[in-house]
Amino acid sequence: MNPLFLIPVVLVIAGIIFMVIMNKKHAAAKTEIDLDLERTKYDLHKEEVLKQDFSQLKQWMKGKSIDAYTSGSVPQTKANKVQEVVTDGIKNVALSAVGVKLQRVETECFWVLSGNDLHFFSTDAVGELDEHVVFDNFRIEEAQLEYGGILKSQLGLYSKSSEEYLPKTHIITFNIDGNPLALEIHDRLHYVPDPTDILNLNKQLLTRAKYQVVGENFVKVLQNKFPNLQVA
């Protein structure tokens, strides 16, 4: 038998062994993360993560306070697809007033609560600022908030066992000149592993925990300031 034919078999077996080993290491590393303990360090994590990993938000805010922040996205549901058709004739007039396109934004987005204003940032393909939309307290007081579940668009990128790392969303809907504009708020910051930390599971999981602690507090802080956004 040509030994070259054995190479794919060996690679498959090696891959399976590697996955088994990594799954065991992942399970062991998870036991060392106490998420409830990390939640008690919210203020510390909020400042640390902002400074070390998301300093661009400070730059984009141009000196304004950052009371809370998290990741976000533009929803793409059947309802939105219908909305795009129905409002096609007016979206350039009404919705462009706040600078948000109805079509799906696939790039990274962020929310920042600053005083009584909500800032929504979308980025381009290389992570540079693309759009900056500000919703003032009058817009927020007329807005509605509902739980949106797991971010469906990312399910295909993860195994079932990894769903716990997918962001859960709240959908905030603004009234823009009589037309609804829905945007998603994530309960954690978007995490991209540093290539140098691929095998450092402890660091990865701790970073994920910090990102979750910071992100999940965003809605709480927002609701405390705007009681109309309480979810039934």
Explain what you see.
The chain has a seven-stranded antiparallel beta sheet with strand order 4-3-2-1-7-6-5. It is α+β, with helices and mostly antiparallel strands and 232 residues long. 22% of the residues are buried. It is globular. The longest helix is centred in the first third of the chain and has 25 residues, at 6-30. A hairpin with a 5-residue loop joins strand 3 and strand 4. Helix 3 crosses helix 7 (201-225). The model is unreliable at 78-104 (pLDDT under 50). It has seven helices and seven strands, in the order H-H-H-H-E-H-E-E-E-H-E-E-E-H.
Helix count equals 7
Order of secondary-structure elements: HHHHEHEEEHEEEH
Tell the overall outline.
globular
User: How are the strands ordered across the major sheet?
Assistant: 4-3-2-1-7-6-5
Helix content: 25-40%
Task: Work out the number of β strands.
Answer: 7
Spatial extent as radius of gyration? 21 Å
Secondary-structure content class: alpha+beta
Report mean pLDDT, rounded to a whole number.
79
What is the strand content? 15-25%
Sheet with most strands: 7 strands, antiparallel
Low-confidence stretches: 78-104
Distance between the termini: 68 Å
